[in-house]
Structures are given as C-alpha cells and as structure tokens.
C-alpha cells in the first residue's frame, strides 16, 4: 500500500481520526533513576539499561499510545565511537533501539490478547489496536549535546553536504531495522530538513517518515527560518507522510497548526514539551516555566479541531499525560482504539 494512503487508513481507524504519540522518553527514564547527564543522553541507556527503555515504552502503550518513538534521538555512530565503541557496535545500538520498541509492542500485544479472553479461555471478539514504531533521528545539534538543536546555531558554517554525510549511514542503518516510520525530530532549520529529504530520495529509503520542527516564538522554527518554507520542503517529499511540531511550548501549538495547514494537506502531528525551558549549560529543565498537566491536556481537543491528527508529548510529559490525551480524544468518539492496517508496504 502507498505509505500516504496507509497513514490515512491508520488514522481513520484511530479514535476520532486521531492517533496518540507517546510522551517524553529521556525525562521518564530519569524519573525511573537513569543518570542521563551524558553527551549521549537517552542513547546511553541502549547499553547501560535497555530493559528500562522497554519498561518505559510499555508504560506508554498501557497509557494509550498508538505510536512509540525509539530511544535513538541522540544515538549516532559518531557519538558512540567517541565513547570507544566500534563502528559495528555503534550500528548495533541503532538497530537495538528499534528492536527494544518492537519487544515492548510484542509484550503489549500479548497482554492485550490475554485480557480479551474470558475466564474459561474463550476468546472475546475485539479489535487489537495497531501500534507503530517510529525510529527517532535527532538533528546534528543533538549530537553536539550543547543545546544547539534548540537554536539551530551550530557555531560554524554547516553545509548541506556536511549534514548529509553526518546523517547518511545512520539513516541507512535505522531504515534497515524496518521500523514502521522514521521520525526526524526537533528539526531546527531548513537546511537540515533539505538534507533529510535528499537522503531519503537518494538512498531510496522505503520506510515512510515524518518531519517535526520546533519553534520558540510560535512563528518560525528555532533558527529563525520560515516555518512555511520548512513545511513546504517536507510537503514536497513523497516519503514524508506527516509533518508537524515537537518540543515546543503548548501555548504556541494552535497557531503553528493553523500556519502549517495553509502549506500542506499532509497529516499534522504535534507533540509539545511541558512548556519548561531547557538550560543547556546546567543540562536541566526549569520547572517554573512550564504548564500543569491539566492545562496541557486542556489544549488537546482544540489542537485536534485545528487540524492535528497525531498528538502526543515531548520532554517532561509522562504516561499520565498520554493517558489523559487518549481519554480526552476517546470522549469525542464512540469508536474503539483499533486498526489492522499493514502500514509499511
């Protein structure tokens, strides 16, 4: 099936035509005791505590997520090699990030199947929800681990070819792991978006992708590049099946959805952070700048009505946030959360 058609069918089977993306991974890993004060951030857990990643994935599924995002946002071959791992080991960590999400999905499917049986073992008719695994690819700035993905300022002149060379093998390895989607996340500028498009096309990547930009003013992406221009770059790429915003304060999301809707007819995805600011020097979030979970969830139906059809959370959101989002969307429709689409052809 054509990936764009598969995405439309998948969304049509979800609650009210809207799928739920999971929430913050790294900050939830920290809540479970992981020490992520490391240049590899959440990718460190791929070799230090992979079982914890699986546990957090499963918590999000049980909270109502339809889409899991892998622990590969800050996982790069260059980053692992800088820690002494070989190229082969580094590539294995990338593949492992996808495998762990698959494992969590399999556990969830098994639990879901068992819960659909009567006490005598008779199967109760029900629709098993389809869960998609989106393999995360963070920006070049994420690899730098200096907070520059939140500014788009890499401290030097970065060319299109430099970015393509940096991401090329990583993208190939991720695609070979056969996730359902590739999630290009927290894209800070249009040159990196263009690099992703050219790599998808030049390498004939068969896995559909989404592009998620970030904004700090509710008008442009964080680098100051035009959101319209960035959206148009994603819209022109056939491999991109959804485009939207992540890791952006909730107060900006409604206006950004309306702006993007003028440029693209592709599904809009949004997964904001909690509204807290990130201190790149201290490598920590500033809680006083955020919104409460109730306030965050109060936006959900407005975002859906504005045109968002994939909604979740980013940094500092939790399984409780995702459960509230799922419940809020479910109240708008009597349809169960279910879909049996074969997403990747």
Automatic annotation (TrEMBL):
PROSITE patterns referenced in this protein's UniProt entry, alphabetically: HCY (PS50970)
Q: Name one Pfam family in it.
A: S-methyl_trans
Q: Which cofactor does it need?
A: Zn(2+)
| Single biological process term from Gene Ontology | methionine biosynthetic process
Task: Quote the Gene3D superfamilies the UniProt record gives.
Answer: Homocysteine-binding-like domain
Under Enzyme Commission nomenclature, its number is 2.1.1.10
Keywords from the UniProt entry: Amino-acid biosynthesis, Metal-binding, Methionine biosynthesis, Methyltransferase, Transferase, Zinc
* Lineage: superkingdom: Eukaryota
Q: Which residues form the Hcy-binding domain?
A: 7-329
- Cofactor binding, note field: Binds 1 zinc ion per subunit.
Binding residues for Zn(2+): 247, 314-315
Known catalytic reactions? S-methyl-L-methionine + L-homocysteine = 2 L-methionine + H(+)
Provide a Gene Ontology MF annotation, just one.
S-adenosylmethionine-homocysteine S-methyltransferase activity
InterPro entries noted in UniProt:
BHMT-like, HCY_dom, HCY_dom_sf, Hcy_S-methyltransferase
Q: What does this protein do?
A: Catalyzes methyl transfer from S-methylmethionine (SMM) to adenosyl-L-homocysteine (AdoMet). SMM degradation (by HMT-1, HMT-2, HMT-3 and HMT-4) and biosynthesis (by MMT1) constitute the SMM cycle in plants, which is probably required to achieve short term control of AdoMet level.
Q: What protein is this chain from?
A: homocysteine S-methyltransferase
Q: Which organism is it from?
A: Dioscorea zingiberensis
